[in-house]
From TrEMBL:
Residues 495-517 are annotated as: Disordered. This is Amino acid permease/ SLC12A domain-containing protein. Pfam families: AA_permease, AA_permease_2. GO terms for molecular function: amino acid transmembrane transporter activity. It is found in: Membrane. GO terms for cellular component: membrane. InterPro entries: AA-permease/SLC12A_dom, AA/rel_permease1, Amino_acid_permease_CS, APC_YAT.
Length: 1115
């Protein structure tokens, strides 16, 4: 292999992915640019949820609504089990040809080649059959729309169907090649489109159906009514309803096929698989519940719809002709991108199988095109042509068409079951867990998965009409698969190079070129953690890294600088996968050969680190990924959401709060993308406050730091008061000041125990909040359907008193409420400075912002909007915070008597969590201010444990202003002090957007490529500019009610007092220190970057089973 070819691989991926792929014997040929969420998006997009449900309703409707709902739920449970079994394998050995590679790796010697060959062909043909199935369904949906427009008076011929089908596949092939640079962005957009279509359906269908003569079906009809419109017995008709989820939720192996284009594949693959299945399981169940509630009770009319699609008839019956056409067009659009995604996945499996020489024309299809950004363009052409040819079967009859499509289910189920079986039957001793592993549960999960897949293959071969089907109704799956397996067996029996199942020379010089280590590292500790200005090279290694199978980082220093107690080093990074090593007799490990990575782009090695002193010990990087996940989630589930959502409902109405919280949620998503990009590359405790100093102007950081610190001081103070109030709900024996003092001591004590204690406490508190809200959502669904409380609510409050409380004015008012409740999402950026693994933990937390907003905020608004009318006086008139909570009101109305106590307990947990987080964020902000000279230096001190004890004490002392609220004479002073925090949240978000824009401009000016960014903001630059403009607008708009007639001077001061205070702080520092706006070419974009080695700190091999289960739940 030429040096140029080797350099190509190192430019395409980072060290851990390169090393893991090299262990499996492959070189890096594809560009790794898919994040975890985008790997998930590939599978989720192929599943297409609602379009897939629509295309397979003919399997589930014949057995009645109960089969639709429970058939989906039950089958998805087993599919999730299969996903877990494959996630274990995908994390341990992530490669594009994973299924057949795992089979060959784990199988007994005499079965390696036959079984891996069988799996590879089954998977390849199954995926190509999936292309045929998805695009054929798309064409049928398009023609159903045409039939709609012509009122069912027109039907397409088979030749017309095939012509559009072939054109669709060719378009997908062209897009798959030409749109490769933005394909990962397209997948992210597909998530939004799919979820948006589901939400639109579950909202619109009940509203429309409730206005018809039939109305919405009862909960008893939805969950327990069974019919039988087949010639099979009723029990087997129910089992055949499983075919709908089996067909729909069946592309999760695409995450495996994208693994060589995924960043941090060992985590991206398993979480992509489980996320896609889990999302389809839950959202599909919700969708089918709504569809069953809105379907005509005359199921025969739905099955025999003149439009050719049951879902089209359902939309038509509930919403009318025009709305139904709109939904069908949206569904067809989503299905079009389903086809594009499965072409991508199928091409990667075809390319991987060709790379191992197992397919006809392998030498042609294994070539990776540099012209098209390192894509297997020829493999795309191959699967496109094959799909067009196979589609000719559609010209025969419907039985031939269904047989073609059955290749997907039967082929993929065989391909999934075989490696799982090989691992548990032959490969237990060979299996080495990856970042995701289910521990002792792994084997029983795998056994259950194999049993289910065996049943699924059998089920897919039954005709839907039986037990004596006609030739036209016969399921010819068994015939098609029989022919396929016979051809495979014949191919295996011919001894040639191609029938080895995978290349026999994998792992040798064909895929990698050993090279000697120029400067072996002899220190089994942290050798070369600091670059010596007199040396020409430095390195980072641990003893485990230097053993065979480990990896080594070296760097040739190009520039070192010592100034003001900081040591800066820019260098060229080399990463080597160790293949041989020995000891020198003193337990010192020396690598002797490795798969090397020549010097690449300049990186910073542990730069800009202050010299450590007893008073200036560094913050400890001990927060693990699970901590950041739950801190990010728990940070947005506060008492404001549990109580303030009632006020929002009263102001805007159910539709109004959905609109306002969704719009502000999108704004927060853009802000967090910007913050995530900077925080992942430069994870410092000062976060966006430090970024504003480095990327804009130090005076801006001065104003922002003090304003942001004071914001969280006021939040902390409010939480102390809230705790005193909610604890008083249970007893009035303890005075309020005693409650405040008690929690003051508790918070200060917990905070001084270290950041790991904070992370653990917040993890469990957040987990309780997540579980509690999930339970509420389930209860709300049952209550709405009439299962609890005895009456069906549905969407009646959307019509009486109405969907909007005060028209556009109410929506505008709730923008401010939404902004206030969303405050705190940005705290993830601050925790990055104490994260053990910011390169992966921070992006994961940032990427999940969309889902947190969608599930917890928009979900909360949706459910309270269903359960309560916006004019319910209890939302505002009650005396205690507990009684004000819409959760309490809704559960009490349903007859759940302990509701008040349960919700009060949840509020207490939320307030404790919010107070704990407020003290953490405020202390880290003022710590940065003290260390950077923008506050007294004593505030920047930490003890040996890395705890900023002075900042914690100072912050908690200032929060004692909460005691002022207990005095009638000092109450007004307290209100005035709290008012000063004002619009700080919007100011912070606007500054994050400004710093991100200038950060990107500096990267370009200084010649840095965006490839140095471990995480790249989606929708940049438009998303960032939208966030900036929207926040500036909200800063000035949020107090517009003060200008309504008559003008309110008090409201004006409350809403805008922070603006002049913030301006004074910025200008005062600017004139005092004579600061200037930082020039782009002089901007410091190097200091604070993390080393590759520093990010490999979390040990997953020694986790308990319980810990692994928790990791599955929280990511």
């Amino acid at each position: 292999m030429s040096p140029e070819a080797h350099l190509q691989g190192t430019e395409l991926a980072e060290a851990p992915d390169l090393e893991l792929l090299a262990v499996m014997g492959y070189k890096q040929e594809l560009r790794r640019h898919y994040s975890t969420i985008q790997v998930f998006a590939i599978a989720f997009s192929i599943m297409g949820l609602l379009p897939s449900i629509a295309s397979t309703l003919s399997f589930s409707v014949p057995a009645g609504p109960a089969a639709m709902v429970w058939g989906w739920f039950t089958a998805c449970f087993f599919i999730f089990i299969v996903g877990i079994a494959l996630a274990d394998l995908g994390s341990a050995l992530p490669t594009s040809g994973g299924l057949y590679w795992w089979t060959h790796h784990f199988a007994a010697d005499k079965w390696k080649n036959p079984l891996s060959f069988l799996v590879g062909y089954s998977n390849t043909i199954g995926l190509i059959g999936g292309i045929c199935s998805v695009d054929y369904s798309f064409v049928l949906m398009v023609f159903a729309i045409v039939s709609f427009v012509r009122d069912g008076e027109w039907m397409a011929s088979r030749s017309q169907i095939y012509g559009v089908y072939a054109a669709t596949i060719i378009i997908h092939g062209i897009l798959a090649i030409l749109a490769a640079p933005i394909m990962h962005r397209i997948q992210s957009a597909c998530i939004v489109a799919n979820v948006g279509l589901v939400l639109a359906t579950v909202i619109a269908l009940p509203i429309g159906r409730s206005r018809t003569a039939e109305g919405i079906n009862s909960a008893a009809y939805v969950f327990s009514h069974v019919e039988n419109h087949t010639s099979w017995p009723t029990g087997w008709a129910f089992m055949l309803s499983w075919l709908s989820p089996i067909w729909s939720v069946g592309a999760f192996d695409s995450c495996v096929h994208m693994s060589e284009e995924a960043m941090n594949a060992a985590k991206a693959v398993p979480y992509g698989i489980l996320g896609a299945i889990g999302a389809c399981w839950s959202l599909g169940f919700l969708s089918l519940c709504i569809i069953a509630a809105c379907i005509s009770t005359d199921l025969s009319s739905v099955l025999e719809s003149r439009f050719g699609q049951p879902i089209a008839q359902i939309y038509y019956d509930a919403l009318g002709r025009n709305a139904a056409i709109g939904f069908m067009v949206a569904m067809a659009t989503v299905q079009f991108f389903m086809g594009l995604s499965i072409v991508i996945a199928a091409s990667r499996q075809t390319w991987a199988f060709s790379r191992d020489g197992a397919l006809p024309f392998s030498n042609y299809m294994k070539v990776v095109s540099r012209r098209f950004r390192y894509q297997p363009a020829r493999a795309v052409v191959g699967v496109t042509i094959t799909s067009v040819i196979l589609g000719l079967l559609c010209l025969i009859n419907s039985a031939a068409t269904n047989a073609l499509f059955s290749l997907t289910v039967a082929g993929n189920n065989v391909a999934w079951a075989t490696p799982i079986f090989c691992r548990i039957f032959w490969g237990q001793n060979k299996f080495k867990p990856g970042a995701f592993y289910t521990g002792r549960l792994s084997t029983p999960i795998a056994i259950l998965a194999v049993a289910y897949l065996s049943f699924s293959v059998t089920l897919s071969m039954f005709p839907t009409a039986g037990p004596a089907p006609s030739p036209d109704a016969m399921n010819y799956t068994v015939v098609i698969n029989g022919i396929k397996h016979q051809n495979i067996n014949q191919a295996i029996s011919v001894p040639n190079e191609r029938t080895s199942g995978r290349g026999s020379d994998i792992g040798t010089s064909r895929n990698s070129q050993p090279m000697s280590v120029v400067s072996p590292v002899k220190d089994p500790g942290l050798a070369g953690k600091w670059c010596n200005p007199q040396q020409t090279s430095c390195a980072f290694a641990t003893s485990d890294m230097l053993r065979p199978g480990g990896w080594l980082v070296t760097a040739a220093s190009t520039e070192t600088k010592q100034e003001k107690g900081r040591r800066n080093c820019r260098g060229s990074l080399s990463i080597m996968a160790v293949t041989e090593s020995h000891t020198d007799g003193a337990d010192t490990i020396i690598p002797t050969s490795a798969h090397g990575k020549p010097p690449g782009d300049p990186v910073l090695l542990e730069s800009a680190m202050p010299e450590e002193t007893p008073q200036n010990a560094p913050l400890h990087r001990t927060l693990k990924s699970r901590h950041l996940q739950m801190i990010a989630i728990g940070g947005i589930i506060g008492p404001g959401l549990l109580v303030g959502s009632g006020n929002a409902l009263h102001v805007a109405g159910p539709a109004g709060i959905l609109i306002s919280f969704t719009i502000v949620g999108i704004l927060v998503f853009f802000v967090m993308q910007s913050l995530g990009e900077m925080a992942t590359l430069i994870p410092v405790s000062g976060s966006f406050t430090e970024y504003s100093a480095r990327f804009v102007d130090p005076s801006l950081a001065f104003g922002l730091g003090w304003a942001y610190w004071y914001l969280w001081v006021t939040v902390l103070s409010n939480e102390y008061n809230a705790l005193a109030l909610v604890m008083g709900y249970w007893t009035d024996v303890v005075p309020q000041w005693a409650w405040i003092l008690m929690f003051w001591v508790i918070f200060l004590t917990l905070s001084n125990l270290g950041v790991l204690t904070y992370g653990e406490v917040e993890f469990w508190l957040a987990l309780i909040k997540v579980i509690s809200l999930t339970v509420f959502f389930i209860l709300a669904t049952v209550i709405s359907a009439g299962g609890i409380g005895g009456k069906t609510i549905g969407f009646k409050y959307w019509s009486n008193p109405g969907a909007f409380a005060d028209s556009i004015n109410g929506v505008a008012k709730t923008f401010v409420i939404a902004g206030t409740l969303y405050a705190g999402t940005e705290m993830v950026g601050i925790t990055a400075g104490e994260s053990a693994n910011p390169r992966t933990a921070v992006p994961t937390a940032i990427r999940q912002v969309f889902w947190r907003i969608l599930i917890f905020y928009v979900g909360m608004m949706f459910f309270i909007g269903i359960l309560l009318p916006y004019d319910d006086k209890r939302l505002l008139s009650s005396g205690s915070k507990t009684a004000q909570s819409p959760l309490t009101i809704a559960l009490s109305d349903a007859g759940i008597l302990p509701a008040a106590h349960l919700i009060n307990g949840l509020i207490v947990i939320s307030v404790i969590s919010a107070g704990n987080s407020s003290l953490y964020v405020a202390s880290r902000t003022i710590l940065y201010m003290g260390r950077s000279g923008k506050a007294p230096a004593i505030l920047g001190r930490t003890n040996k444990a890395g705890v900023p004890w002075v900042a914690l004490l100072f912050t908690n002392l200032v929060a004692c202003i909460s005691f002022l609220s207990l005095s009638s004479s000092a109450g007004k002073l307290y209100s005035a002090l709290i008012t000063l925090s004002g619009v700080c949240t919007f100011i912070v978000w606007a500054v994050i957007a400004v710093t991100h824009i200038r950060f990107r401009q500096a990267l370009a000016i200084q010649g840095e490529d965006t490839s140095v960014l471990p995480f790249q903001a989606m929708f940049y630059p438009w998303g960032t500019y939208i966030a900036l403009a929207a926040n500036i607008f909200l800063i000035f708009f949020q107090g517009y009610t003060a200008f309504l007639h008559p003008f309110s001077a008090e409201d004006f001061v409350v809403n805008y007092i922070l603006l002049p205070v913030f301006a004074v702080l910025v200008l005062a520092w600017k004139f005092a220190k004579q600061t200037k706006i930082v020039k782009l070419e002089e901007m410091d974009i190097w200091s604070g970057r993390r080393e590759y080695g520093d990010d490999i700190t979390e040990d997953v091999s020694k986790k308990t089973v319980w810990t692994k289960i928790k990791d599955i739940i929280v990511g």
